Sequence to fold (72 residues):
Amino acid sequence: MSKVLDELADLIRRDSRTISELSRETGIAKSAISRLLRKERGLMIDSAETLARAVGRTIVMKPTPKLKKRSK
Fold:
């Protein structure tokens, strides 16, 4: 998930709106957005999806093959 959050942070940095404006528009705390941009913390998936929509993107989850169990 960190690759997704890194890409989301890059999109937010390139957006013309301030953190305060994004916070007001999305309902996500300024501190949460700031921590994401500083790579101090991640976000819950619903918050990440909300921010992605705010910058004109969507997050898509695709099925992947199941991992094999490791032998002990």
